[in-house]
């Protein structure tokens, strides 16, 4: 336990995959630095990093159609897909390094080979998927992407998608065998265990209530332990990786950089089955196309999830609304986040996204049978008795100032760091966990600019392509993807 008179070098607020990743990286770069991790709940990875709270699988843009929009001229924009895939490869390289170093155990404790598929129906969507395949199939990061409109071929890939489907319905699918399923809950726990073995202190049941700048430039963290007496912890550097709780804490810090930021919480539900007979008929992560006018977060997907060695299927999401910023949060979270500096951006973003409000209202009013019909569009012969509802984690979409629009709703993540580099935090949601390593590299570069040059040799050992772009070098991409897959013992 830290004495307030002796600052820790690094305080990590939140026991999720972001804090665990940053802690693991810092321990490799500066083994002697002291690290203290503060988690409000009684275990780590219980919020957004939990695999049943949206963070399961590995978002690598192999199948997520919202990363490849069709432009007005009919061309497919692959910019976001390439960026997300490249970021995921950085994360995989770091994990494979930790496995080789013994910091992580057998890879199948957190990552498994799972083909990634896109699946659509209707002439217009079939043509879109054909064009997407043509735009990506020769790219170094998308090698092996297959396309088919043949019902029998698609049935071989994923039998649940075709059984019981009308014979005259046009369908198409893409598939790439090199996809993965990542249990970020398990990964977080494994990283935290290794951090503790290297001297880091993990404080569970310790809720951070305030952040105050110290005269020496560091931070005083006010903490209230569950059932204990409030105390303070001093730290030279603070990272706020508290998921939806990050906005409040960064606001409490008073740093100028958080001004204008707000958040819009979205809750959700999934349908899940653990029935072995059903699960055995689907071994893939399959994304569809969002309905016209629906937001990116509504893209339907049917995923194989392997959690603690047990395979299940999960379909959704079905969106909902709650003013909480965390599943374990307060009903007043949204209202408590409103400040004079973010009120106008939040209003402007709300006016510009009335379609999202309409979508959420529609989802809230939808009956159970209507929601189940959405599953049957994917799995025509789905039986209600095989599926049950689970509540997803809270997502807090970033709202930020915009010089032209006043405020915009941003679908993604945002690092907010003080100018002096003593504090940083992460706002936003997907692709989140899958791109944790490049996000934390951004934190390191922004908060420790004077040390980055000296860290270069270690960073390149941890991430062989650090500072490079795989997307522009086919030979380098093939070699890196192959060596990483071998190190993690997943299908290349």
UniProtKB/TrEMBL annotation:
Transmembrane spans: none
Record InterPro entries: FAD/NAD-bd_sf, MQO
Pfam families, alphabetized: Mqo (PF06039)
Entry annotated with the keyword Transcription regulation: no
Class in the EC hierarchy, top level: oxidoreductase
UniProt keyword terms in alphabetical order: FAD, Flavoprotein, Oxidoreductase, Tricarboxylic acid cycle
GO biological process assignments: tricarboxylic acid cycle
EC identifiers of the protein: 1.1.5.4
Domain of life: Bacteria
Reactions the enzyme catalyzes: (S)-malate + a quinone = a quinol + oxaloacetate
Protein name (Swiss-Prot/TrEMBL): Probable malate:quinone oxidoreductase
Source organism of this protein record: Frigoribacterium faeni
């Amino acid at each position: 336990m830290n004495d307030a008179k002796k600052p820790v070098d690094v305080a990590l607020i939140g026991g999720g995959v972001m804090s665990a990743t940053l802690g693991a990286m810092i321990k490799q770069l500066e083994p002697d630095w002291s690290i203290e991790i503060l988690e409000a709940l009684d275990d780590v990875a219980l919020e957004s990093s939990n695999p049943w709270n949206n963070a399961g699988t590995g978002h690598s843009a192999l199948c997520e159609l919202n990363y490849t929009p069709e432009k007005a001229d009919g061309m497919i924009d692959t910019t976001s897909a390439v960026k997300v895939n490249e970021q995921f490869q950085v994360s995989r390289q770091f994990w494979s390094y930790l496995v080789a170093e013994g910091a992580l155990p057998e890879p199948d404790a957190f990552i498994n080979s799972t083909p990634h598929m896109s699946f659509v129906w209707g002439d217009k969507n079939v043509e879109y998927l054909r064009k997407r395949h043509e735009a990506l199939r020769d790219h170094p990061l998308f090698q092996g992407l297959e396309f088919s409109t043949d019902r029998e071929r698609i049935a071989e890939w994923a039998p649940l998608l075709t059984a019981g489907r009308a014979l005259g319905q046009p369908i198409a699918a893409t598939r790439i065998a090199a996809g993965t399923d990542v249990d970020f809950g398990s990964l977080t726990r494994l990283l935290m265990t290794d951090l503790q073995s290297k001297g880091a202190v993990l404080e569970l049941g310790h809720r951070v209530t305030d952040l105050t700048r110290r005269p020496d430039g560091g931070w005083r963290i006010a903490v209230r332990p569950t059932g204990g007496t409030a105390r303070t912890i001093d730290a030279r550097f603070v990272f706020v990786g508290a998921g939806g709780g990050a906005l409040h804490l960064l606001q409490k810090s008073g740093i100028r950089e958080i001004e204008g930021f707000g958040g819009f919480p979205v809750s959700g539900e999934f349908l899940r089955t653990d029935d072995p007979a059903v699960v055995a008929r689907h071994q893939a992560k399959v994304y569809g196309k969002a309905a016209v006018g629906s937001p990116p977060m509504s893209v339907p997907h049917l995923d194989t999830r392997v959690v603690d060695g047990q395979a299940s299927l999960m379909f959704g999401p079905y969106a909902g609304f709650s003013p909480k910023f965390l599943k374990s949060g307060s009903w007043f979270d949204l209202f408590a986040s409103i400040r004079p500096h973010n009120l106008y951006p939040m209003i402007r973003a709300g006016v510009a996204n009335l379609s999202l409000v309409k979508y959420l209202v529609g989802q809230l009013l939808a009956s159970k049978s209507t929601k189940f019909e959405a599953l049957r569009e994917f799995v025509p012969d789905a039986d209600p008795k095989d599926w049950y509802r689970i509540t997803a984690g809270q997502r807090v979409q970033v709202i930020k100032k915009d010089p032209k629009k006043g405020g915009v709703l941003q679908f993604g993540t945002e690092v907010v760091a003080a100018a002096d580099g003593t504090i940083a935090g992460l706002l936003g949601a997907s692709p989140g966990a899958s791109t944790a390593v490049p996000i934390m590299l951004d934190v390191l570069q922004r908060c420790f600019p004077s040390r980055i040059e000296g860290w270069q040799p270690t960073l390149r050992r941890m991430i062989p392509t650090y500072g490079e772009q795989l997307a522009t070098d086919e030979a380098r991409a093939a070699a890196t993807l192959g060596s990483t897959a071998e190190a993690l013992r997943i299908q290349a």
